[in-house]
Specification:
Length: 175
């Protein structure tokens, strides 16, 4: 199609040189308009990209704040569990002592064995609770990192329009 237009333009220029000059001048002004439209569109895209980046940065802040809050809840739950375990251990030891006093078996091996068993169970429970706490905290950290990586991916796409290269992973020390 472009070859046909070129042929028509050459024929028109040969027939009337003024028509060819008018065509060139018209093309020049048309290209100025097109450049202006492209420039306005790029300016609008850049503005939308910057606005979207701001929203994504806000979302990243919310992710970090949410994760921190969940971590605080996790710690509070762990602390309550620790208090319950200590209270249970004290009650269990008091029962062993009371039983030894009631039965007159204070120095016997059965009472000592019960106390040792109770202590071992308490320590195992503490280790299990600590492991559970670390595991849940790890999962929470992984969730936060994944969500921030998703946001970073979107920011990377927007940087083509905004000209900025914002890195939320660096902002929140995630490698």
């Amino acid at each position: 199609m472009s070859g046909l237009l070129k042929a028509i333009n050459i024929a028109a220029t040969a027939a009337n040189p003024a028509l060819g000059a008018a065509s060139v001048i018209g093309g020049f002004f048309t290209s100025i308009g097109a450049r202006r439209r492209r420039k306005r569109e790029m300016k609008r895209r850049r503005a939308r990209a910057k606005k979207s980046e701001g929203l994504l940065l806000g979302a990243a802040g919310n992710v970090v704040q949410d994760t921190q809050q969940q971590g605080e809840f996790l710690q509070e739950g762990f602390n309550i569990g620790q208090q319950q375990a200590v209270t249970g251990y004290r009650e269990g030891m008091q029962n062993v002592v009371d039983t030894a006093a009631r039965t007159g078996l204070a120095g016997s091996g059965a009472i000592s064995q019960s106390a040792t068993y109770l202590q071992d169970q308490f320590q195992l429970g503490q280790q299990q609770a600590s492991l559970g706490m670390r595991s849940e905290q790890y999962q929470l950290d992984q969730q936060k990192e994944s969500r921030l990586r998703d946001i970073q991916s979107n920011l990377l796409e927007l940087s083509a329009y905004s000209g900025r290269n914002i890195n939320v992973l660096e902002m929140y020390d995630i490698s």
